[in-house]
Every structure is written in C-alpha cells, then in structure tokens.
Amino acid sequence: HDSYFLCWASVIVRDVINPLRAEPLADATQIKVTRIIILITGVFLLIWGVWYELPDSIWTYMAVTGNIFLSGAGVVIVGGLYWPRASTAGAMAAMLVGLISIVGLFPGPVQAVAPWMTEGLIGVSSYVLCAITFFSVSLLFPDNRPATTDEENS
Prior knowledge:
By secondary structure, this protein is mainly alpha-helical. 72% of the residues lie in helices and 0% in strands. It has helices at residues 2-20, 27-50, 58-82, 88-97, 107-113, 119-140, 150-153. Helix 3 (58-82) runs antiparallel to helix 4 (88-97) and helix 3 runs parallel beside helix 6.
C-alpha cells in the first residue's frame, strides 16, 4: 500500500493543490504536504478498515463506491467525446452529481419515502441524473471556444 499512498498523495499535491494556487508549491513543501496527506490517508484507512462496520455486504459497498465515480465519469467521457457542445462546467457538475450514488449504501430512508426504489434503481437513476445535469449545465454554461471549421480540423 505504500506505493499507492505515495502515488495518490503526490497526485493530490501536483494535480489538485498546485493548480489551485497562484504559484506551485516549492519542491520541499510539496514533499512535506505529500507526507501529511499520506499520514492522513493512513489514519483514515486504519479507522475505516478496522472499526467501520459496513451496512451491507462488501459487494454492495464496492458496487456503490464504484458507481459514485462511474456514473459521473461515464457520462462525461461519452458526452465529452461525442457531443460538441459539452462544457467543462457540465462535466464538473455531472461528476459532483455522481456522489448521489452514496445513497445506495443507506437505502432505508429513500425506501421509506419511495418503497419501490431499490438499490439497483438508485444506481441506475444516478446515471440518468448525471446525464441530465451534464447536458443541462453544458447548455447553460458553454465553454468559450473559438468556432473551428472542417478545414482547420483536417
């Protein structure tokens, strides 16, 4: 796991923290922040792995956590590749809406309101909500790109 910790902590520092700053962190500071993120991740995984009780089977947990990413990312990848009006704002909004899949881990409150809403339907509906969000937000907030002609693309 040490390789994963190092890899993901450095990705967070270089691809998330540095772009949010006016100037990138100095190399020594990046190393310190990476170490802090590794420590925080290790503590989180210790607590999650040892003391957290899954509300259902591990397969349900894996399906829901995978769906959190795939529902947003799948819509963004397909929409971004095949729809010319796709925008960055639409992509980010769809990825955030994918978080709604976490409801699949705790379906009780949803089923109290809508008893017909199964875990599978919750998962599928997250794809639909991500798609609606992607297309709506892309239309409302288009990217400012110069128009290209077919001659420029060839």
